[in-house]
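Checked the freezer inventory, then went back to the computational side. Two predictions to log before the end of the day. The first one is the construct we discussed on Monday; recording sequence and tokens without edits.
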Amino acid sequence: MGTSNTSDRPTAQTVNNFNSTSALFGKTVTTIAAGANHSLALCTDGTLASWGDNISGQIGDNTSTDRLIPVAVNYAAGISALSGKTVTSISAGDRHSVATCSDGSAAAWGNNAVGQLGDNTQTNRSVPVAVDTTNLGPSERFIRIASGVSAGHTLAIVAGPRLTPLESWRQAWFNSTANGGSAADMFDFDKDGLVNLIEHAFGLDPTRGSSAQLPQGQRVGDDFVIGFTRPEGASSVTYGAEWSTTLSGNPADWTAITDSDPALNGFTFSAPASGAT
């Protein structure tokens, strides 16, 4: 209970934060976590305090001594995985403790008989050690971690970088977010004359010939007009059009066309019908 003694209390008591020997002295607590017989407190400055049973090192102060008042969890450089870190979330298990940090890393300490610390060992730890990230993907990070009062295991929520609409499209069709191989933007997977990026821009199926589904131009008065609506999922695409009377490979022979459709996701491009378009 952190009240400086081992007396059971039938009513709520104040955890010792008024004595200068308490690690909570002068601190403001934001989060509390309770294990089987120990407790953790996260403070606004990102530091941790703990108290109670310490038989497996779950207090994290580099000892196995039970603590009757809050003591600081070890942050020492070269010793603790929390050195230089700011803790953002905490949890407590049966006889172990876990935390996530603002840089996306996670640390754990205490009993490790069944690997609950996640450091690829079964060695108890009396100071925080880094949770192994070998099985995380590139740029993935821990954002939440949890255990339970009787738990000998730990769970974590992992987040990766947010995918762009184009990356999401590649993942959906080719099971890859990378601009390479079958998913490459300039690769024509279905051999229909349209590279993947064009298929994405017009909401087409890149795995089967779909060139006939492209927007078709038509004669409107003296102009040749092509109109279409941006498909769902193509929000990152920038559309443009040019026309030429020669269809040459010289960029100077081409003239940009201004989109004349006022709709947010609508596009209309017009060129003189008398020229080659």
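The second is the one RB wanted added to the comparison set:
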Amino acid sequence: MSLYGNMFIPYPITQFLLRFFWEGSHLWNQYERLSLTKQEIANGKHREAVGGLWDEIGCLQFAYLVKNGLQPEHHFLDVGCGSLRGGIHFIRYLNKGHYYGLDINSSLIEAGWKELEEQALLDRLPSLVVNDCFQFDQFGVKFDFAIAHSVFTHLPANVIHRCLVNIDKVLKPGGKFFTTFFEVNDKFHLDEIWQNQELKTYLDKDPYHYHRSLFAYLVDGLSLHMEYIGDWGHPRNQKMLSFRKGQETMPTQIIP
């Protein structure tokens, strides 16, 4: 028991409150505390943990970025890379050592290494790190392209802001950051939205939806220029945005 004012609080509740106040900054993210055993990874549970549709969405991301200018010689950052649903395709395509992936969850990164081993891609020398603050500068690289697929769909606005501020620091002039989000057309709409027959999104809990104007606000004052792309063929109705860094050195036309 623990004494709070004139009340005794049972020890388990005290421990929960301590964790809430000390660790509460990350309670918004369902993936931080996801823990997969080695057996679960061996059984492929990590493929479902990142949302399933492993082959379909992995190929979709890859094909879209290649169509919009990604070349093997480019340096590429995969934000929220998870267990490499898309990463496998990018690693196979890019020059050796040009893929960089970051995720909040260590067991998903472990599963990603297993995917690479099984597909004989370890010699492509990708860089994978676990990080919960979008500290992209730790790679010591400036990037031509980056993607955050199905990442902003799980994040509150202030955390998205942190990601955008940090991506601005590591893109090359003319570099592009593509990101998906669930969209609400009326920014004053407070209720849940059905994105398809199976998936609802929310204003204030995961999975989140946002009005596109939020992202323009978040990058105001940065050297990122936002372009709304919208539909790009995503099976769960996630929309696409592009953020281009400052000086134009790469083609700007986005191919749907």
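For RB: The longest helix spans residues 54-67. The helical segments are 11-23, 38-42, 45-49, 54-67, 87-93, 106-118, 157-170, 213-219. Let me know if you want it refolded.
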